[in-house]
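Quick log. Single chain, no ligands specified.
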Amino acid sequence: MLLKSALLALSATLAAAVPTLEAKDNYFVNPATGNRFQIVGVAYQPGGSAGYKPQEGFDPLSRKDHCLRDAALMQILGVNTIRVYNLSPDLNHDECASIFNAAGIYMLLDVNSPLVGESLTDFNTWESYYASYLNRTFAVVEAFKSYPNTLAFFSGNEVISNIPSAGVVPPYVRAVTRDLKNYIAKHSTRPIPVGYSAADVRDVLFDSFNYFQCREEGVDNDMSHADLFALNSYSWCGNSTFEKSGYDKLVAGFKGSSVPVFYSEYGCNDVTPRPFTEVSAIYGPQMTDTFSGGVVYEYVQERNNYGLVEIDEKDGSVKILTDFYTFRDQLANLDFTQIQGAKPPSGDPPKAPVCDSKLITTKGFNGNFTLPEVPPGAPEIIAKGVSPKPVGKLVDISNYKVTFSVKNPDDSSLTNLEVKPIANDGINQPGSNTAEGTTPTGTSAAPAASSSKAAAGRQATAFVFPAVAMGAFAFAAGITI
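-> predicted structure:
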């Protein structure tokens, strides 16, 4: 009996691993099964700009107890992916990465930050593209490349947001994509996709897509070609429809993509509480041939009113908001056996178009595919690796129990909350974790919806200026992340 108990205790600490995924042609694929993978994600930047303070020793994935708390709640939510915007390669992320891995949750990671010198600017972009900037992006890769649940890296986020920025930025984002992919090919034991997260500004959206997904003619292995394309879109508001929201136009515009396409942010809050009726469309038959899921914005409540939970930064306690359970229930209505069990269609996959100025349709958008040379000093970093080199690895977690107070919208408490480690090669989905005290699935009662002035006009214009967690900080600093 004692031996059995000891073995059980030991097995609880060992970190089972999610299957590493690949971007194969226009889908994410589990190479072990051949099945497609649909991203069911949530944006995760606790504290907004205050949650990224490397000088004080923390970022969103550096505090074990916080990650335990949030991973357990995300298991209840039913998501399988987090998007994290700002990370410091100088901090240790082993425990948090291991916790999310055990929870069956992947990580989509931005390599940039809002601090000066840690991102490309959307004006005079050439002044922000230099070796020390690239060194930091490579260091982020080094810090996260060895975690099996690292799904992909974003080389840029909404750096192209209007015609003026579209006239300058594209070659530099494509160059950063090239540099990151060359670094990964040289220093990672597995390929990790690199792509761009775009603002849903229709004037420049599809030109951005074509600019980044095309391949240079005559180049067998074009490293500047993006492995994926994502968009931050808030055009589906309230109880909208596939046509009214403009989702039909997005599907038409991305049909035939040569790379995976997905929402890197969605979740309009013109109408609150949010009904999340777009979920059934995103994972339904009208979209899944073209899209690979999406990331709802966002996990933690900030001043912009997109959160699923409120966190008291003083004591770490959590108040679950109505939107949390509404989103959970929408996910629970999906058939995940079918969604995550689909095979890519047979036949030849779509081919990337050849890079040509004729792909660009908008006047003022940069159609020049001659990229800037790798800046002085950077080729040596790509060849030899960053120094000092951060090293990430999965570690054993001895206790998955959550120590913080977590309450429902009605102030009742969740009890015995803990991460439930997923079996090896497993992925989180609705129903994998049901803590005592959670509102039963399908019974979340939302107050009557009302119009929100904070996001007014977003549906009509069909684009978003930043709902990004770090947006206000970035604008104040004069940089785009």
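The radius of gyration is 21 Å.
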